[in-house]
Every structure is written in C-alpha cells, then in structure tokens.
Specification:
There is one protein chain. Helix content is 21%, strand content 36%. It is an alpha/beta fold. A hairpin with a 5-residue loop joins strand 4 and strand 5.
Length: 158
C-alpha cells in the first residue's frame, strides 16, 4: 500500500461536477492498493496515519497527530500510486490490487480510521475525481506498507 499524505487546510472531491466529500483542517490521503496488501498492512497504515505527528503544537513544532489536532481525514483511492515506473516509459499496473481486493482494503482502512472518532470521508472508487486541496505547510509525506515497503524487499540474511 502506498499513501501520499498531505496536511491540508481543506480538501474536497468532485465527481461529474458534484461535491461528494469536503473536509476542513486535517489530512488528505491518496491511497494506492497493491495486490499483496492485507489486514497487517492496513493496520500498520491506519496506526501510522493516526499517530504521525504532523500538526503544530503551541510552539509551532510538528508534535501533534491528527487525533490530537481534532482534524478530519479524506481518503481518495488512487490506483496509479501502486503502479511501477521502474522500467520503460509506460507505467506497469501488474502489481495493482484487483478491484474487489482494493475496495475491501480501502474499506478496512476507512473503518480503522473512523474508529479513532474522527470524521473520515471518502472519494469514489473507480470514478474520475477532481481533487482540490489547500496544502498546509506544505506538509506532504509518502508512506509505504506491506510489499511496497523498501525494507520488505530486502532478503533476510542467511
């Protein structure tokens, strides 16, 4: 699973010109689900997203997480994040999760994020979406979990 996490002042998603989700201060997550992603990757992703200290404290230091900040979360499925661009000029989508798997993984992620008590909204899977945001900072991180995580591709010694 690959996630681009952005701290935002506000963010929204439109489908066919109609607003389907809008948040205020919080996090925008662009999420690419890979074929090997499972409950372990989802749990790690939810824990990281909820615990990552990217919001300023009273001194202006990034010491608060989204829960402490009382922010909102907008989850936008973006299968292109799971593509490989290592070879050639055409992205390879061979590692992207099949539709049914991706929908289930994203649903699990949203459920886990909502368990925090925060408002968590979603873009629409498989739709052409217009995503609008005001990046706060700007603060943007690229997170990887499961098979895409660099440390998981390094063979164990011995």
């Amino acid at each position: 699973m690959r996630i681009v996490l952005q701290r935002v002042e506000r963010a929204s998603v439109r489908v066919a010109g109609i607003d389907v989700a809008t948040i205020g201060s919080g996090l925008l997550l662009l999420v690419g689900v890979e074929a090997e992603d499972d409950a372990v990757a989802v749990a790690a992703a939810a824990d990281k997203v909820l615990g990552l200290r990217v919001f300023p404290d009273q001194a202006g230091n990034m010491n608060r997480n989204v829960v402490e900040h009382g922010g909102e979360i907008l989850v936008v499925p973006q299968f292109t994040l799971a593509a490989s661009t290592r070879r050639g000029r055409r992205p390879s989508f061979s590692g992207v999760a099949p539709r049914a798997v991706a929908i289930a993984v994203l649903g699990d992620l949203v459920t886990r994020l909502r368990a925090s008590g925060l408002q968590v909204l979603e873009g629409r899977f498989g739709e052409a979406m217009a995503v609008e945001l005001v990046n706060d900072g700007p603060v943007t991180f690229h997170l990887e979990f499961g098979a895409s995580e660099p440390s998981s591709r390094i063979p164990a010694p011995g």
